[in-house]
Write a structure and sequence with these properties.
The chain has a three-stranded antiparallel sheet with strand order 1-2-3, with no helix packed on it. It has three domains: 103 residues; 164 residues, Intergrase catalytic core (hpI Integrase, Chain A, Orthogonal Bundle), CATH 1.10.443.10; 58 residues. Helix 5 runs antiparallel to helix 6. With 381 residues, the chain is mainly α. The protein is globular and about 70 Å long. It is 60% helix and 4% strand. Strand 1 and strand 2 form a beta hairpin. The protein contains 16 helices and three strands.
Length: 381
């Protein structure tokens, strides 16, 4: 009796279970959701397709792409991109494992255009009014939202802050320890006296909270009676109410506080590599999505550039990047990235091509040093 060939459903589920060994639960759920959606479509439109070897780009995959475009309510481009990415990953993994599968079932041209992300900071006036209202309210939700705005951390990261998140890293130098979060990274965000005062206010209110409320959040900065999501659902209406009382002109979400922080930091002179570290991004392109160059900033940059253009022989004096508060590999890499950023700014102002080439070679050397430091950091883990 010939062996029974596993069905398409069983093969995909078995591979998803393998991926579950290394992926986060949310990612695994995403793969299962895409698989259910695709297999449901196949059963309805092509009931005879029961094996991987039967799967073809035309008509099976192309027809599914068209069905995604025709769904009601309409799927966003981002959702369609994620669906195609997940299914392509599964199919490519199965083909690499030796399964009989046609090549190029999902191609690059099948993906819709990526959405153009625009920064969403609050206007300076709304930002100031909201912060004033949060300070005036002064309860735990208000202080939690104020801490999110002052540090640029994600609202989920704020909810998960430890009771001892405020760390002294040097003489009169403090930082907020942000735990492992969305991108599996942790970081130290500098904490000025205002941030330390907000944390102190939270600790004071926490100490007066009923013991029953503290039980589920032992070891956490923000007390909560239920789950992480329950506290999140408490903070959302608190922010909406504060924005309404402050007279903000538009809808305010927790993530807009993070965008406002990013734009403010750039306006104050923080470099993009530095901002990337503050926000906990792994890719500077993501950081660029958070930055808004308003008309006032554009005017200032324009006239500064014109002034430099009238003085072609005046070379800028470069300041040495601030040393890392702690002599560790992440701090060294941060200083190195800041140096590369300053060198690039300097190079773009030069007219001598020979000097510009020399600086490009130096930048490549610094990039090599950064790569070696990255290998060392991974080896330490």
């Amino acid at each position: 009796m010939p062996p029974v060939t596993p069905s398409l459903e069983r093969i995909l589920e078995a591979h998803i279970q393998t991926l579950a060994l290394t992926l986060r639960p949310d990612s695994v759920s995403g793969y299962r959701g895409v698989t259910r959606r695709f297999l449901s479509y196949l059963r309805a439109a092509f009931p005879s397709v029961r094996r991987l070897s039967q799967l073809r780009r035309d008509p099976h995959l192309l027809a599914w792409f068209r069905s995604l475009c025709e769904e009601q309510p309409t799927l966003s481009n981002k959702t369609r991109i994620n669906l195609l990415l997940c299914l392509r990953r599964l199919l490519e993994d199965l083909a690499a494992s030796g399964h009989s599968l046609s090549a190029d079932l999902i191609r690059r041209e099948d993906f819709p255009p990526s959405p153009h992300y625009l920064p969403r900071p609050l206007s300076p006036q709304d930002d100031q009014l909201l912060q004033q209202e949060l300070r005036r309210t002064g309860d735990l939700p208000a202080l939690a939202l104020l801490l999110t705005r002052a540090t640029g951390i994600r609202i989920g990261e704020c909810i998960d802050l430890a009771l001892d998140c405020l760390r002294q890293i040097g003489p009169d130098q403090w930082a907020l320890h942000v735990p492992l979060g969305k991108l599996h990274t942790e970081r130290l965000v500098p904490a000025d006296p205002d941030i330390r005062q907000i944390v102190a206010g939270i600790l004071t209110l926490r100490a007066s909270a009923p013991s029953a409320r503290l039980a589920p959040s032992e070891g956490l900065l923000l007390p909560r009676a239920g789950s992480h999501d329950a506290l999140y659902q408490t903070l959302l209406p608190a922010l909406a109410d504060a924005a309404k009382r402050a007279g903000c002109s538009g809808r305010v979400t927790p993530h807009r506080l993070r965008h406002s922080f990013a734009s403010e930091m750039v306006r104050f002179g923080v470099s993009l590599p530095g901002l990337m570290q503050l926000l906990g991004h792994k890719d500077i392109r993501m950081t660029m999505r958070y930055v808004e160059v308003v008309q006032l900033d554009l005017q200032r940059e324009f006239y500064a550039a014109r002034q430099n253009a009238t003085q072609p022989h005046r070379f800028p004096i470069l300041s040495v990047p601030n040393a890392s508060a702690s002599a560790d590999l992440p701090g060294i890499r941060q200083a190195l990235n800041a140096t590369r950023h300053l060198l690039e700014m300097y190079r773009r102002q030069l007219t001598d091509e020979k000097t510009r080439r020399t600086l490009r070679r130096l930048d490549r050397r610094l990039l090599g040093v950064d790569s070696r430091l990255d290998h060392l950091a991974k080896a330490e883990k």
